[in-house]
Amino acid sequence: MSTYITDYIPFDYVHYGTEILPAIEQATRGNSIPLSNMIASATHFSPRLRSRYALPLPEEQRDPLIWMFAGLFDVSTLRRIRAGETWNPWEALATVLPTLEGKSLTVLGRYGEMLKYHLLATFCCEVPPWSENWPHHEYRGPILGHDETVSDWHEYCKRDMGTQVLWETFYRPASSDLEDILNIGDEQRSSYMYKYQPRYIPTVTYTETEMGIDGFVTLEEIQYLLEHVRSHERPVLDSIISKCIRDGEGMDWDIDVEALNKDAIKNQEEIAGEVSWHYIRRKGLLINHRAVFEQWRKSHPVEMDKFVEEYYEGIHMVEDEILHRMRFAVEREWGILVMSAKL
After folding, report:
1. pLDDT band at 277 (very low <50, low <70, confident <90, very high)
2. What is the enclosing helix (H) or strand (E) of 27?
3. What mean pLDDT, rounded, does the chain reach?
4. For residues 117 and 55, what is the distance between their CA atoms, to the nearest angstrom?
5. Distance CA 293, CA 233 (A)
6. Quick one: 256 exposed, middle or buried, by C-beta within 10 A (0-12, 13-18, 19+)?
């Protein structure tokens, strides 16, 4: 069963657009010197957007990364590395440079795309220390590490029109100036992904499954969001209601069907076209979650308040951490990207 994750990463989109992409483009035209110099200057390596390893690679990281680069080593080198020889992933990626000539930024080939991704992750992304509100500071995973927290957060960001407009900035069409920075041309504008995710950044990596950079915001957009965001609100979210219903079912609470409004009770045919997870099944009938939620809040007030409080604490913790990362990005005059993956 797949798990969906989402993370927000401070992102130096200006450096990516004005330094890295032009260096790659120069390499496609036969001049690999700027890109070669950039690779030689690396003091660390990021195998993914959320990781950073000093060079030379720590011993505990060498073996887990070998399989990503195996195709770039000859047999004897690969044998020595597997026997414990120290290796530098940037030296392996440097061998890709000659293959870029004659290609384009949108078609770099498998290892060319891999090189572009690790340049972005290494030179343009940095995950700050967790904020004081994050309870598990040794945790190294994404802010939203499971389908349920992803669902809660996305619904929380759409709780009213003003809030939805703020958080949808990640996915709005880029201005012409921003398109110029990121070298977005007619080919990308006409693509399927650009139509539905105009700030999507194509990436290829072999460390996370179906990972994608879904969008990003600029420095100015972060500053506007921080100025207008309303935090720690407590809207009644369908995702929280559903989890409270699940918790109540786990305690074998009864439902007084006779006391419910008849509009809250339907059969299978009557919910055609609706999302069935908004209903709980009892005696062949489907009962609306919200109606059960309200009934249980009256019949089990202490337990239900505890459930609700726990879920709001989780959302507010996520909110605090994302805003903490945004302030970190503002200090560096960076943006923030949002990534998602199916693991």
Report:
1. low
2. helix 21-28
3. 86
4. 18
5. 19
6. exposed
Measured between alpha carbons, how far is 136 from 148 in angstroms, rounded to an integer? 19
- For residue 82, give the amino acid letter: R
SS3 content of the chain, % helix, strand, coil (to 5): 55, 10, 35
Find the mean pLDDT for residues 166-185: 82
The residue type at 323 = L
Residue 10: CB atoms within 10 A of its CB come to 23
- The set of residues, in sequence order, having a beta carbon less than 8 Å from that of 60 and lying 6+ positions away, is none
Coil, helix or strand at residue 5: strand
Contact in structure between 299 and 259 (CB atoms under 8 Å): no
CA distances, 124 to each of 53, 138, 153, 160, 309 (Å): 14, 23, 25, 33, 37
pTM score over 0.85: yes
pLDDT tens digits for 103-152?
A: 988 788 889 999 999 999 999 999 888 888 887 767 778 999 888 899 99
Residue 155 has pLDDT above 80, yes or no: yes
- Tell me the backbone φ, ψ of residue 106, rounded to 5 degrees: -95, -15
Based on the number of CB atoms within 10 Å of its own CB, is 196 exposed (0-12), middle (13-18) or buried (19 or more)?
exposed
Burial (Cβ within 10 Å: 0-12, 13-18, ≥19) of residue 177: exposed
Contact predicate 256/295, CB 8 Å: yes
Rg (CA), the chain: 24
DSSP 72: G
- Res 207 pLDDT > 60: no
Q: What percent of the chain has pLDDT over 70?
A: 90
Q: What residue segments make up the domains of the chain, in order of their start?
A: 4-233+312-342, 238-306
Distance CA 329, CA 311 (A): 27
The β-bridge relationship of strands 212-217 and 335-342 is antiparallel
Mean pLDDT, to the nearest integer, of 261-268?
76
**Are the CB atoms for 304 and 180 separated by under 8 Å?**
no
Q: Where are the beta strands (DSSP E) in 50-172?
A: 53-54
